[in-house]
Design brief:
By secondary structure, the protein is of the alpha/beta class. It contains 11 helices and 14 strands. α6 (135-144) runs parallel beside α7.
């Protein structure tokens, strides 16, 4: 922290309507409610966005309060390294951390990937997510998006075999990954894994509830399994190695890009494959996550594609190919 820095903090709650209801096994949403942090320091401005997630006990009001609780420290010059010990992993720290990265990039005239020692960001294919629903409804969604190279299916438990078969028939050329959002039970695994194999699924994300995934030790499928809700930051990562092949890194879980990069390092050291994902947010939330994309086998940063209107300025999506972020958006 440096008292010589005169810095201003702005915290704003913004609402973005979705193009259609987004439905997963835990419920539906029609609006993305995000918290945006702006840090101003002289002529420079850094921004970050987070999406509070009720699954982890977060609320918009709670996240705003946590950020406001650091106003004095942030306006006095708090930097990323000290931030990590002041807030837990989660949405509030993410918005601040990403704003600090952006501010540092603007001050130094250096792109974030270079500051972080990461590879340059190239255009990358993102998955496109289909909400869970009746098999015929999911097939209709899949038919509309059948030319997209990678579809991500939200599943919900009972009826998933029919959903998988219907989507595969409607989109025969698309690669498929699936996300059960903790909706399966151990006794479901053999039949749901068999349905995934029949549909040619390339990755299964978080089939069982966090903390109740022991059955994945002997799961009986060659399809890689990815941890999402089961992994937030580096704590406990080693204990997941016999259950998962990949981890889904989301900045709203890790509490920002700083921890996300360290988590990626540790995951690679332990032999996990990397997947970078997102909550439903705007381009300002996706841009920091793209820093990780060159290291990831799977990229799922389609949040803006699910909105009726993205913020401006925004990322450029050419169908499902994301162009690298311009510095005036972030980083």
């Amino acid at each position: 922290m440096s008292a010589s820095k005169a810095r201003g903090l702005s915290v704003k709650v913004e609402r973005f309507d979705l193009a259609a209801p987004f439905v997963i096994s835990r419920g539906a949403k029609s609006v993305a409610e995000v918290v945006t942090v702006t840090l101003e320091e002289g002529a420079f401005q850094g921004r970050g966005e987070c999406v509070p997630y009720g699954r982890f006990g977060e609320t918009v009001q709670g996240v705003v309060a946590a950020i406001e609780g650091l106003r004095g420290a942030l306006e006095a010059g708090l930097e990323r390294e000290a931030l990590q010990a002041l807030l837990p992993a989660g949405a509030a720290r993410n918005a601040i951390d990403c704003a600090l990265w952006d501010l540092e990039a603007k001050r130094s005239g250096t792109r974030v990937q270079d500051l972080a020692g990461q590879s340059s960001i190239a255009p990358v294919i993102t998955a496109y997510t289909l909400s869970v629903g009746a098999p015929e409804a999911m097939a209709a969604q899949a038919a509309i998006h059948a030319e997209k190279p990678l579809l991500k299916l939200k599943l919900g438990g009972e009826g998933d075999e029919a959903r998988l078969a219907a989507v595969r028939a409607a989109a025969p050329r698309s690669a498929l990954i699936v996300d059960a959002n903790e909706a399966w039970r151990p006794e479901d695994l053999p039949r749901f894994f068999a349905a995934c194999e029949a549909a040619g699924v390339g990755l299964i994300e978080q089939p069982l509830p966090q903390g109740r995934d022991e059955a994945l030790v002997r799961r009986g499928t060659t399809i890689p399994v990815c941890a999402d809700e089961s992994v937030h930051d580096r704590a406990g990562l080693k204990a997941l190695r016999d259950r998962y092949d990949f981890i889904n890194i989301k900045l709203d879980k890790t509490g920002g890009l700083t921890e996300a990069l360290l988590l990626a390092d540790e995951a690679e050291r332990l032999g996990f494959g990397l997947f970078v994902g997102c909550m439903v947010g705007t381009s300002l939330a996706m841009a920091p996550a793209l820093t990780l994309a060159p290291r990831c086998r799977f990229v799922d940063l389609d949040g803006p594609l699910l909105l009726a209107r993205d913020r401006a300025p925004h990322l450029i999506y050419d169908a499902c190919v994301i162009q690298p972020p311009a510095s005036y958006l972030w980083g």
